[in-house]
Amino acid sequence: MSSIPKGTWVEVERVALGAGQRPPVRPSEPGSLPPRGTRVSGFLLKDGELGQMVRIRTITGKEHVGSLRIQNPGYGYGFAHAVPELLRALPRLGK
Questions:
Q1: CA distances from 33 to 13, 40, 67, 69, 78 (A)
Q2: Beta strands in the chain, from DSSP E residues, in sequence order
Q3: DSSP code of residue 67
Q4: DSSP state, 8?
Q5: Tens digits of residue pLDDT in 16-49
């Protein structure tokens, strides 16, 4: 696989809460379901490869760790791919 360079806009998937970490809720069925991943987009903080655990920084400046899914992810509902040059125009990005 080819390496994706630091600073690239990517999407990661992470598990927010495993089955044993979920708070008790009623009905109890949701607590027994397998965990679903949460997808988060941001800038890579170090070079990485697809499927590898990486750390990213979101547009709001928060850091997340997850499995690298997609390089340059698009937006849902037909809004096309993200434009890296426009993302970097926002403050605190790609650093």
A1: 18, 22, 21, 23, 31
A2: 9-15, 37-44, 53-57, 63-71
A3: E
A4: -
A5: 766 566 666 655 665 566 666 789 999 999 999 9
